[in-house]
Each structure stands twice: as structure tokens, then as C-alpha cells.
Amino acid sequence: PEKRRSYDVSMMAICDAGASADEKDTNGVTGPTMTVDEAYRSFKSATAYFAAADLSEAGNFAEPLMRATKLVKSVDKRMAKSQAVSSVLDAADLYAALGAKRGASEAEIRQAYIQTAIGVHPKKNKHADASRAFVRATQAWSVLGDEEARHSYDASSNALSDSVDGEGGPRAAPPPPPRVQDMSMEDAFAAFKEATAAF
């Protein structure tokens, strides 16, 4: 029973992915609908035929499971790429866009940028908004990777936070955060190349 439960858990994602992508091509992998019970029976049958040295029949039962496994891996990769793009574009501030802490060192900011930029690089991530995410991540690095620009950004962010959270009488309006310069894809690629040159 314990093995069956463990198998059910691992197969559930495979079967759900197969059902949701029924007859749809995902990176060349097609996945027909398969219930957990059907998957379990196919697994047991494939195991039995393999034990009996009937490789042909074992292959017949194992093939749809292998196809479903490939499908679920493909779906997982696409979801991860989509989440990488969303984490950059939906980030509340430049630090969040890179997944970096405000107190991070310059080296840590650089590492966070490189890791983020690789995840949304349009040559590796085919999501429709990957280019936008790549540019935004690089814009964040252009500010946070520069000591003076980062200090100005932090000061503006802190002033804005104080004006919102503080108590007492009227306060002067905080200075606006430094404007992030527009950046072309060519400039973003050049900045990425420069940032990775030291690694």
C-alpha cells in the first residue's frame, strides 16, 4: 500500500499533465489522457512483462508512461520559464526584480543579476515577454550595480517609505526615485556581456 501511494503521488502530476495537454504538441511530445489507475496498471504490466523477459510487451506498456514523463518535464520547464519572466516584470522594486536583498553587496547584486538575466535571456527563454524581462533586469542592474545610482535609489525609496508609514504632521513630498533610463535590447546585451566578463 505504501508503495502504491508513493507511486500514485508521483504519477498524479504526469497524468494531470497528459490530460491537460491531450493531443497537444509540447516540444514534440504528445500526451494522451491517462488516469492514475491506468498509469499504475501500465506500470505493473510493464514490470511483469519485463520480469518475464518479454521486452516487446513491456515496451508497449512502458512507452505511454515514458511519453507522459517527457511531457511533464516539458511542462515543468515551460512553467519555470514563465515564472522567471513574471518574477521580474511583476516585481515591486529593482531589488525584487533581481531577487536580491537591499543590504546585498555589489558582488551579490551582480550574481543575482546574472542569475536572473540568464533565466530570462531571450535566446534561452522563449516566453513572449522574455525580452522585456531581460531589459528590466538589466535596467535594475544598471542602477543597483552603480554605487552612486544605488545610493540615490535607496535614499528615494526610504524617503517614500517614511512619508507613507510615518506619523505626525504634514511632510514634504519625497523626491521621486531616480528614473531608470530606457534601454534597447542591444544595450541590454552589451551590459550583460560586460557584467559576465569577470566570471
UniProtKB/TrEMBL annotation:
Domain J positions: 93-157
Record-level GO cellular component terms: endoplasmic reticulum membrane
Region (Disordered): 152-184
This protein's name: J domain-containing protein
Domain of life where this protein originates: Eukaryota
Organism expressing this protein natively: Alexandrium monilatum
Pfam name, any one: DnaJ
GO molecular function, a single term: Hsp70 protein binding
